[in-house]
User: Which sequence fits this backbone?
C-alpha cells in the first residue's frame, strides 16, 4: 500500500495557475506530492491528476474514465471539432476509431505520406537557395499542408494550401488560451470545416465507394458509424480535418527538431550518414519525448472509483500527465538531457513514451497518428540535417508558460548552398 500524499487544498481552483505556468503547472504540483495524485479544481470542476505506468492502465480503462462531455466547448470549437472521435465512448468510439486506424496505421499509406512530404520539401528547398531568411515553422506547415491534402485526396489552389496551413496552425495555437488567439482558432476551424463539408457532399454526389482502397476523403465520406449510418456531412468534415490538422501540427516538432540540431550539432553527422532511417527515427522519438507539446489528457470518472486507496468521485475530471511522464526521473535516466541514443537500438515501449497518449490505440483514445508523426518527422529531420544553413541571431527561447509553445522565432535559417 502506498502512503498517499495528495497535494493540499483540493478546493482551490487552478485554472489561473495553469494558464500562467503552462507546461510546468502539473509537473510542479506532482513534484510536491512525490508523483502521487494531485487534487485540485479546473474551471470549478473537481480534478485528480495521475501519472505513471500504472495510472495509464487505469486511465485508459473505459470502465473508469469516459470522454463524452469531458472536453470543454472552447477546445472542441478550436482543436477537435464537435462530434469528433475524441468525444466518443464504447461502440461508437470503437467503430469510428477503426476507420482512423485503417487509414493511418497502414504501412504503405504512412510511407506514401512521408514521400509526399519529402517531395514538397525538395520543391520548397529550391526556393530557399537564394539565401533568403526562411522561418522553418511556417514553411514546414505549408509543406505538410500540401502533402497531407494530396494524400487525403483534397485538391486546392496554391493560395488555398497556404490558408489550410495557417488555419490548422491557428486551430492548434488557440485552443488553450482566451483572447485573440482563441477567436482566430474558431474562425479558422469554421472556414476549413465549411470547405470540407463541400468536398464530402461532392464525393457523395459521385456515388458510393465500392473498393476498400479509396482516398481518406472517400473513406471518411462513406464511413458508417456503429448505428450503420453515414456521418452527417459536418461530422465527416470534422474527422477529415482531424487527419489534416494534426499532420500540419507536425510543424511544431519540425521546429523543435531544428532547435535540437542547432543546440546539439553533433547529431548532424550521424543523421547524414544514417542508412535505413534508424538514427532519424531515434531522433524523432527523442524530439517527441524531450520537447513540450501535449501537456496532459483528461476524461471523466464513470462512477465512484478507487485509485491506489484514493477515492475518486463520479464525474471528477481525471487527468493523465503526459509531459511529466516523459520527463519523470523515475522512468528516464537524466530526462532533461536530449539523447536520441535512448532509442537507436529499440523502439520505445507502448506505455514508456507517451507524448501522444498511452495504452492501446484500438481500445482507447491513444493517437492513431503516431506512425505518421514518426515517419514524417524522421523524413523532415533527415532533410534538415542534409541542408547547409546558417542560423541568424534570433530569439530561440521556448516559453513553458505558452501552450502550445515553440521557439519564439519559429526557427529562422538561411540556406548557404546546394550540397
Ligand atoms: C503532431 C503531433 C501529434 C501529437 C502531439 C498528437 C497528440 C495526440 C494526443 C495527446 C491525443 C489524445 C490521446 C488521448 O486522448 O488519450 C491524440 C489523439 C488523436 N490524434 Fe494525435 N497527435 C499528433 C499527430 C497526429 C496525426 C499526424 C494524426 C492524424 C494523421 C492524429 C490524429 C489523432 C486523432 C484522430 C486522435 C483521436 C483519437 C481518439 O480519440 O481515439 N494525431 N493525439
Assistant:
Amino acid at each position: 500500500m502506498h502512503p498517499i500524499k495528495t497535494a493540499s487544498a483540493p478546493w482551490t481552483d487552478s485554472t489561473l495557475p495553469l494558464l500562467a505556468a503552462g507546461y510546468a503547472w502539473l509537473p510542479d504540483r506532482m513534484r510536491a506530492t512525490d508523483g502521487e495524485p494531485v487534487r485540485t479544481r479546473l474551471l470549478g470542476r473537481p480534478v485528480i491528476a495521475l501519472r505513471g505506468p500504472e495510472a495509464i492502465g487505469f486511465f485508459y480503462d473505459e470502465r473508469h474514465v469516459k470522454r463524452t462531455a469531458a472536453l470543454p466547448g472552447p477546445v472542441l470549437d478550436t482543436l477537435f471539432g464537435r462530434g469528433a472521435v475524441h468525444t466518443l465512448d464504447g461502440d461508437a468510439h470503437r467503430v469510428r476509431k477503426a476507420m482512423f486506424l485503417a487509414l493511418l496505421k497502414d504501412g504503405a499509406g504512412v510511407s506514401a505520406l512521408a514521400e509526399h512530404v519529402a517531395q514538397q520539401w525538395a520543391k520548397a528547398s529550391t526556393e530557399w537557395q537564394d539565401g533568403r531568411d526562411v522561418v522553418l515553422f511556417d514553411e514546414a506547415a505549408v509543406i505538410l499542408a500540401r502533402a497531407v491534402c494530396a494524400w487525403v485526396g483534397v485538391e486546392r489552389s496554391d493560395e488555398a494550401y497556404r490558408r489550410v496551413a495557417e488555419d490548422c496552425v491557428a486551430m492548434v495555437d488557440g485552443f488553450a488560451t482566451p483572447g485573440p488567439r482563441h477567436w482566430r482558432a474558431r474562425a479558422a476551424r469554421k472556414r476549413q470545416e465549411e470547405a470540407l463539408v463541400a468536398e464530402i457532399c461532392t464525393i457523395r454526389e459521385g456515388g458510393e465507394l465500392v473498393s476498400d482502397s479509396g482516398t481518406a476523403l472517400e473513406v471518411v465520406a462513406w464511413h458508417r458509424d456503429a448505428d450503420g449510418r453515414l456521418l452527417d456531412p459536418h461530422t465527416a468534415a470534422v474527422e477529415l480535418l482531424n487527419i489534416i490538422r494534426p499532420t500540419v501540427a507536425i510543424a511544431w516538432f519540425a521546429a523543435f527538431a531544428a532547435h535540437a540540431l542547432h543546440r546539439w550539432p553533433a547529431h548532424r553527422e550521424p543523421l547524414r550518414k544514417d542508412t535505413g532511417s534508424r538514427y532519424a527515427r531515434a531522433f524523432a522519438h527523442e524530439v517527441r519525448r524531450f520537447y513540450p507539446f501535449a501537456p496532459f489528457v483528461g476524461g471523466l470518472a464513470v462512477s465512484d472509483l478507487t485509485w491506489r486507496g484514493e477515492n475518486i468521485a463520479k464525474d471528477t475530471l481525471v487527468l493523465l500527465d503526459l509531459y511529466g511522464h516523459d520527463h519523470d526521473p523515475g522512468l528516464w535516466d537524466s530526462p532533461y538531457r536530449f539523447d536520441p541514443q535512448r532509442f537507436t537500438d529499440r523502439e520505445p515501449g507502448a506505455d514508456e513514451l507517451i507524448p501522444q497518449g498511452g495504452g492501446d490505440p484500438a481500445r482507447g483514445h491513444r493517437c492513431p497518428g503516431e506512425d505518421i508523426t514518426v515517419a514524417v518527422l524522421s523524413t523532415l529531420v533527415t532533410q534538415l540535417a542534409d541542408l547547409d544553413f546558417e542560423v541568424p541571431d534570433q530569439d530561440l527561447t521556448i516559453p513553458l508558460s505558452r501552450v502550445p509553445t515553440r521557439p519564439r522565432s519559429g526557427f529562422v535559417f538561411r540556406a548557404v548552398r546546394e550540397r
User: Anything to note?
Assistant: Residues 15-417 form a domain with the Cytochrome p450 fold (CATH 1.10.630.10).
